[in-house]
Amino acid sequence: MSLAKEFQSLANFLKDDAAYAEPVRTAEDKEVWSRIVRHLEMLWKTDEKRFFIDYLSGLERLKISASRIPVLSDINQMLSQIGWSAVYVDGMVDDHLYHEMQAARIFPVARRLRRLRDLDHSAAPDFVHDVLGHLPMLFTAHYRFLVREWAQRAMAAPREALDAEISKALAALIAEHESGVIDPAMIDKKTDELRDLHRRARSGTPSLAARFARFYAWAIEFGIITDGKDRLQISGSASLSSPGELRKIFNGETQLVSFVNNALDTPIDYTTPQNTMFFVSQFSEYRSVLRSVGKDELMHPHQQNRKTPRSRMPDIPAGI
């Protein structure tokens, strides 16, 4: 694969054969996969109308089965139909590399599966989250376009010192949740540290990088489409792959707030189920909000006092 200079981190990553090496699945891995898929299958049938319609067809195209954990070659055979592919990653992926991957139509799939103790909710992104949450949504053209446009624009957003501190604190909290022996006192300590940083972030204007990160969190990971009455569809990948998160939403335990004018001001903690999520009335609202993020800040200084023609926006390479 030939990649442009702006994808140098990705080019270096793909030189490592580990990106395609299949893990040896344990008995616990197989039980986790089987139990989660069987559980979700019941929800897909009993609450079919509450899932984003194209999500369920995406599951069918991936040929998801409780009896077998998919391997990367199978996944890539399906994704090749839409011009995408997937690679394995271990642990949290550097933000810039994550942007490069999705801008280049490559989705990073976590190699590890969550433990049995984390069936309902995993603090860290895992194989279940990526394969049952993100990949089925990629079979929706406007979702693919949204993800790629987000990635290309987020790549250009400079990070501030506080952004790096928050990323580091969140990674440390996730690692604590994922440790072999849970230490509640240490989790409380690291949670407080993250919340302190979030309070600092709330006290000022969030950086452009922070706003793109929050957009991804509340639109891609925890997206909800509703008219505020009976119609409610889950499109967020973190919710779609978390039985515990889905139950909270379906039982009315999650407060729903308008996405516009609220989501980008709200920091995210992925380590616990969300008490509040942000909804749009139709999927196209996400793209409208995304295009408004940092519109002036991403321009060259001499362009900031005039309207930007469409050709000045970051290019989306051919194919979506």
Q: Characteristics of this structure?
A:
320 residues; 6 strands; 48% helix; alpha/beta; two-stranded parallel sheet; four-stranded mixed β-sheet; 2 domains; single chain; disordered C terminus; globular
Short structural description:
The protein is an alpha/beta fold and 320 residues long. Helices cover 48% and strands 8% of the residues. The strands form two sheets. Strands 4-3-6-5 form a four-stranded mixed sheet, with no helix packed on it. The chain has a two-stranded parallel ribbon with strand order 1-2.
Task: Please render the helix and strand layout as text.
Blueprint: H1 8-14, H2 27-46, H3 53-62, H4 72-79, E1 85-89, H5 95-103, E2 106-110, H6 127-137, H7 141-155, H8 161-178, H9 184-202, H10 208-221, E3 224-226, E4 232-234, H11 237-240, H12 243-250, E5 255-258, E6 276-280, H13 284-292
Parallel strand pairs: 1-2, 3-6, 5-6
Antiparallel strand pairs: 3-4
Helix pairs in contact: 3-6, 5-7, 7-10, 7-13, 8-9
